[in-house]
Amino acid sequence: MRSWTSTRDEFAARLAYHVDWGPITPVLLFHNFEWLPTFHDPTDDYLLNADVGARSTLIGNVFAEFKGELRHDETPAPGRQKDDGRLLFGLGWNF
Q1: Structural domain that includes position 42
Q2: What is the pLDDT along the chain (95 residues), one digit of tens a residue?
């Protein structure tokens, strides 16, 4: 039976950015990127997290958001894939 409690702790640097762009009034486009390289081997042991999406105001404080996410682990756990992606659609309320 596989143990899900085992972990590996590492020190890592962090390089990240967040960009918002509103080309027209009700629409906001966004992109986030994060690179987490370990100090001992930054080119062969790192994590990447990125997403890109759009948010649009529907009525009043209610909005809809659609985004794609990518998670990449250059040294995943045994039996795991390096890449994990997903598409998300959500409704929200700004307050």
Answers
A1: 15-70+83-93
A2: 445 556 777 788 999 999 999 999 899 999 999 999 988 888 888 999 999 999 999 999 999 999 999 999 998 888 999 999 999 999 999 98
- Close Cβ partners of 88 (under 8 Å, ≥ 6 residues apart): 53, 65, 66, 67, 68, 69
Burial of 44 (0-12, 13-18, 19+ CB in 10 A): exposed
User: Does 76 map to a domain?
Assistant: no
Tokens of 56: 């649009």
The answer to whether 54 touches 67, Cβ cutoff 8 Å, is yes
